[in-house]
Amino acid sequence: MKSTTNPLTAAAALAFASVLSSTTLIPVVRPLMRWVAPHSESAGHAFMALNLLGGIVAAPAIARLARRSHRRAALVTSLALLDSGLLLLIALPLPLGATLAVRTLQGALNIGVLSTIMGAAPPGDVSGRGARYGLLGTAMMLAVALGAPLGTVCLSMGLRAPLLLSAALNLGVAIGAPLAHLDEQEQALVPAAPFRDFWRGILWIFAERFSIGLFVVTFAMHARLCTSASDTRSGWMLTSFLVPFALAVYPAGRAADRVGAGLLGAGAAGVYGVGFFLLSLASSAQLFVLLPMLGLASAAIFASAMRDAGAAHASPSRVAAMSWLNSAGNLGMMLGTALAGIVCALLRARSVAEHSAHAIVFGIGGATSMLVAALTLGALFATRHLPHTIRVRS
């Protein structure tokens, strides 16, 4: 008897497990690097940066594999099994160089698994594509929100516990992929999405993750030094950003179906930019209003970008588009984090006040997002695409 499992629900479950396998490791980075390299202060930063680098360089390889293979389930299973095996290697007392090399390859495999799942998920018809990818995105963002708390609980059971859980999650993805109907017959192949749609989705995600990279460490320092917030209150502030982000991706996808991904993505990027400019001006209480607004804008950007990347009906084209989307996000996060550290260090060396330094870093993120919004709107108007977007919901 044929399974009645909904292919989209199955893909969302696989994406949830894949992202959770990555975010569960966040709390283990510092203690793991103390164990592997007790005298290296930069090892933890390298562990995270090389994971992002692996995801960045994975895009062309995954795109090529997807075009050559029509068995997406087998591809997911193979990559997830390798990912699981590498996580078990990291749990061993390997030398620092070997640990970082394995981590780089593991990052590439993890993004490969996720991109293939995202691209193989059935997009449905044009009118409901945003909602379908919004559901997929919500599953991914929930995994982002749950990963760190789950990893912290596992860490109380031992240093290897989060790594073993992450490996088990990847094993579950490998086993579940053949049951998720990723290889079902699709519609006849059609041309891939127009380059402007593919390009703008990459630009949105790059700018959004670049701003997040600027934000993460800088905001923790800003909340403590400039708003006198305790570590607990700072944690709740970040939660007020993450929860709306996770819950709003699906409604944002439905909104993209109604008004068009281009208009929604541009508007959300503009709101995002304004919000970043306001971060340094907001009080502790005001941040609990501003951060949820940024979370909603992030959700709209993410949903719009996924809708554009899923525009092609051919699964290999979608996998390739999702691979480049994920790589752009990793690149933005890595560059944003590095730039925030460099800018703060340079300003500190020139005796610039902490509040002013943070305002400059947040301003860079705001300016980047507003530039992307302006470029998107300019492209929409220049191609006379804005009225057409609203009319046919493309």
Tell me what you see in this structure.
This protein has 394 residues and is mainly α. The chain has two domains: 7-179, MFS general substrate transporter like domains (Growth Hormone, Chain: A); 195-392, MFS general substrate transporter like domains (Growth Hormone, Chain: A, Up-down Bundle). It has 14 helices and no strands. The protein starts with 6 loop residues before the first helix and ends with a helix.
Structure characteristics:
394 residues; mainly alpha; Growth Hormone, Chain: A; 2 domains; 14 helices; 80% helix; disordered C terminus
Which spans of ≥5 residues are poorly predicted at pLDDT below 50?
187-194, 385-394
| Number of helical stretches of at least 4 residues | 14
What is the residue-mean pLDDT, rounded to a whole number?
A: 84
**CATH fold type of the largest domain:** Growth Hormone, Chain: A
Largest sheet: none
Order of helices and strands: HHHHHHHHHHHHHH
Strand content: under 5%
Shape: globular
Number of domains: 2
Give the fraction of residues assigned to helices: over 70%
CATH class of the largest domain: Mainly Alpha
Instruction: Give the second-level CATH assignment, the architecture of the largest domain.
Output: Up-down Bundle
Structural class: mainly alpha
Gap from first CA to last CA: 37 Å
Looking at CATH, the homologous superfamily of the largest domain is MFS general substrate transporter like domains
- Over the alpha carbons, how many angstroms does the gyration radius reach? 21 Å
Number of strands: 0
